[in-house]
Amino acid sequence: MDLYVYYRVATGDAEALMPRVRALQAQLAAAHGVAPQLKRRPDSPDGVQTWMEVYPATTPGFTAALTQAVAAAGLDTLIAGPRHTELFMDIPSCA
Q1: Dihedrals φ, ψ of 84, to 5°?
Q2: Sheet with 2-10, side-by-side order of all strands
Q3: Is the pTM above the cut of 0.90?
Q4: Do the domain assignments include residue 41?
Q5: DSSP assignment, residue 27?
Q6: What is the C-alpha separation between 11 and 24, in angstroms, rounded?
Q7: Cα–chain-centroid distance for residue 62?
Q8: Most buried among 11, 33, 54, 86, using CB within 10 Å?
Q9: What region, left, alpha or beta, does residue 61 occupy, with left being phi > 0 and alpha being psi -120 to 50 degrees?
Q10: Is 77 part of a structural domain of the chain?
């Protein structure tokens, strides 16, 4: 399953948040064999950016590991509001 996490970040906090998220993703990549991605919307209405973390092909237990890693990294102190997490699965082809 692929895990998508999106949240809002005040533009003024983006520079401080970036290294924390990158370190978190590097730790998760090493521990869980995922290939994380970090994206953001191109616009920043009212000085707030929307960021998206993508974790393709996660394994069981990854969501719990991510929750623990986020708490340890203190990301919640730099984001505006909650982190929204969604899981998506591949749809098999009909071939």
Answers
A1: -105, 125
A2: 37-40, 48-55, 2-10, 84-88
A3: yes
A4: yes
A5: H
A6: 20
A7: 12
A8: 54
A9: left
A10: yes
Task: Report yes or no on 93 lying in a domain.
Answer: no
Number of independent structural domains in the chain? 1
pLDDT at 94: 80
Q: How many helices (H) and strands (E) does the chain have?
A: 2, 4
pLDDT band (50, 70, 90) for residue 95? low
The rounded distance, in Å, linking the Cα atoms of 79 and 55 is 19
**5-19: per-residue pLDDT in tens?**
999 999 999 999 999
pLDDT digits (tens, 9 = 90+) for 27-70: 999 999 999 999 999 999 999 999 999 999 999 999 999 999 99
CATH number for the domain spanning 51: value is 3.30.70.100
Amino acid, res. 54: V
Query: Domain containing 29: what range?
Result: 2-88
